[in-house]
Amino acid sequence: xxxxxxxxxxxxxxxxxxxxxxxxxxxxxxxxxxxxxxxxxxxxxxxxxxxxxxxxxxxxxxxxxxxxxxxxxxxxxxxxxxxxxxxxxxxxxxxxxxxxxxxxxxxxxxxxxxxxxxxxxxxxxxxxxxxxxxxxxxxxxxxxxxxxxxxxxxxxxxxxxxxxxxxxxxxxxxxxxxxxxxxxxxxxxx
Length: 190
Hints:
Layout: H1 2-11, H2 20-51, E1 68-81, E2 88-89, E3 98-105, E4 108-112, E5 119-122, E6 126-132, E7 134-135, E8 138-139, E9 145-152, E10 155-163, H3 169-189
Antiparallel strand pairs: 1-2, 1-3, 1-10, 3-4, 4-5, 6-9, 7-8, 9-10
């Protein structure tokens, strides 16, 4: 009885474990699919920039900003059309996330972004500052983002910032709101 079982076991070969050609084909196909998706996303980003081509160049900071009222280090999370937190603005590098150094002066808001385009928001262009929970591609807890609404090229934009120390956000909202109110009052008094 022992011999037929050994003969039976000796005759069978184990099945091939891996079909390398099929596996390699699937891996190459998957990599090509990922490359296609990445390329389509990049083309979409460039198309969005083309559609927003009517947005003028970003203003540079004046040579003399004056003394700093507030300074903040943190992250710039992007800009959107005001009131539409998912409509990202990508023209002129406004869609590029980066580290940020914000400086609020009597002249306006200086936005310095290492590795990305710096820009300046004159006090006359500031419209609102508030705390919010999200901007295109970034959602946090309520009040986790400092959103500054400003006018550029006839369009209202929301720019989202997050300080390394989130407790600073409230102070920034108050300071910018006071600057806007003072600027508006001075403008109507003339």
